[in-house]
């Protein structure tokens, strides 16, 4: 159970068949006064450290929409299913309730195990908007951020900018951690000018990480990436800085904390982000998001100011709103799905890399944003534009259809 929980948390860090006939249209409640949007995720338990702010953030989105007049005049009604660290049939049971009992016209997913139920909404023509990292591309699935494997490609691109070699540390308890090493090596070869200098297993039970830090120093790698939990990553960065290891940490914005700007150990760190920089309030859409969090979810204002997880939720909500605004007629699940398939280079007001949803060729965005920590400040890289991985480089590492 401990290993399963850690795997769920890791999947997040790689910083979301019964009852009615399959062809039946789901619509908002019979009174027409509300549009029911389902939300499912691992908001408590092992993944809470990363995904905990997701639920209050999506609540803030709904409140802000309702205060502005709702979705085409109808109030948003969220039906939230928190499955915590549950595995197996828990997600499917929750999704069945959302569709068959609550009559959700769309589902926002922040479930790290969504592959266990993703086919059920499709069979009922209910679109799933993935609010975070995932690798599910298929009918009725609309991912608003890049896949985890695209994140790995971005890590190698950042490593190249730091120098010619990359160190890789991975959790010893979960086989998946080590498996990330293969695409890192393949991407290093594909990109050129950078190589994986070493890979080392790490255990959460270690009293310290002196040996890993010494390996960083001895190998002379320019940067390093850790496939570990937030707590272990923080310990290693602190230990290695104290021991004089000068390799640049490569981080994910979803794991951000205030410490990154105050601890010299993070100076020069390169950070990958699935959406536009959450701190760049010069962008109108980011300012609107941060203002809404401050107003409707003040308990997570601090989280929203230091990491990107709440923005993942907000972006998913904005995708729903943008789709509903395109609907001509009753707001049904099929109408929302059809509207989502009209997205072409859609950025949701500048919040995301361009999103295009093609029913005949389902795919996931390959683009991420980058920023760095410099002199205690977050600095946007690449002119604030997303950097994209070539699809053919990622394809060998993506789940096969069916």
Any descriptors?
402 residues; alpha/beta; Rossmann fold; eight-stranded mixed beta sheet; five-stranded parallel beta sheet; 16 helices
Give a short synopsis of this structure:
The protein has helices at 2-13, 48-51, 54-67, 90-101, 119-123, 148-162, 175-179, 181-191, 210-219, 230-242, 259-262, 284-296, 301-306, 309-326, 333-340, 391-394, and strands spanning 34-41, 75-82, 106-110, 128-130, 141-143, 165-171, 195-202, 223-227, 248-252, 270-273, 367-374, 377-380, 387-388. It is of the alpha/beta class. The protein has two domains: 2-146 and 281-365, Response regulator (Rossmann fold, 3-Layer(aba) Sandwich); 149-273 and 371-397, 3-Layer(aba) Sandwich (Rossmann fold).
In percent, how much strand structure appears in the residues? 15-25%
Uncertain residue segments: 1-13, 15-25
CATH topology of the largest domain: Rossmann fold
Distance between the termini: 28 Å
CATH architect. name of the largest domain: 3-Layer(aba) Sandwich
Write the H/E string, N to C.
HEHHEHEHEEHEHHEHEHEHEHHHHEEEH
Shape, please? Answer: globular
């Amino acid at each position: 159970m401990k290993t399963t929980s850690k795997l769920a948390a890791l999947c997040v860090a790689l910083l979301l068949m019964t009852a009615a006939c399959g062809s039946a249209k789901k619509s908002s409640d019979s009174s027409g006064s509300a549009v029911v949007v389902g939300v499912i995720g691992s908001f408590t338990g092992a993944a809470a450290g990363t995904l905990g702010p997701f639920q209050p953030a999506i609540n803030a989105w709904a409140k802000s929409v309702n205060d502005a007049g709702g979705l085409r005049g109808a109030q948003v009604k969220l039906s939230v299913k928190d499955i915590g660290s549950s595995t197996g049939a828990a997600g499917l049971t929750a999704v069945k309730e959302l569709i068959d009992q609550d009559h959700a016209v769309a589902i926002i997913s922040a479930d790290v195990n969504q592959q266990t139920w993703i086919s059920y909404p499709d069979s009922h023509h209910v679109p799933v908007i993935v609010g975070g990292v995932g690798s599910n591309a298929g009918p009725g699935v609309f991912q608003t951020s890049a896949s985890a494997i695209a994140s790995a490609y971005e890590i190698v691109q950042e490593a190249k900018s730091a120098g010619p070699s990359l160190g890789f540390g991975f959790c010893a308890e979960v086989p998946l951690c080590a498996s990330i090493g293969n695409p890192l090596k393949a991407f290093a070869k594909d990109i050129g000018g950078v190589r994986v200098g070493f890979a080392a297993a790490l255990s959460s039970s270690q009293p310290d990480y002196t040996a890993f830090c010494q390996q960083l120093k001895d190998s002379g790698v320019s940067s390093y990436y850790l496939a570990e939990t937030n707590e272990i990553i923080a310990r290693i960065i602190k230990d290695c800085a104290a021991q004089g290891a000068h390799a640049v940490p490569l981080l994910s914005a979803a794991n951000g904390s205030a410490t990154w700007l105050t601890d010299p150990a993070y100076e020069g760190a390169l950070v990958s982000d699935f959406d536009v920089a959450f701190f760049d309030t010069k962008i109108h859409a980011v300012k609107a998001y941060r203002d809404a969090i401050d107003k409707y979810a003040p308990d997570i204002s601090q989280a929203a100011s230091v990491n990107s997880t709440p923005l993942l939720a907000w972006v998913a909500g904005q995708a729903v709103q943008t789709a509903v605004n395109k609907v001509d007629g009753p707001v049904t699940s099929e109408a929302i799905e059809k509207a989502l398939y009209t997205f072409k280079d859609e950025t949701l007001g500048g919040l995301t890399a361009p999103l295009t949803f093609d029913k005949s060729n389902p795919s996931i965005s390959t683009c991420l944003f980058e920023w760095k920590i410099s002199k205690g400040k977050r600095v946007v890289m690449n002119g604030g534009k997303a950097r994209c991985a070539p699809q053919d480089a990622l394809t060998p590492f993506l789940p096969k259809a069916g």
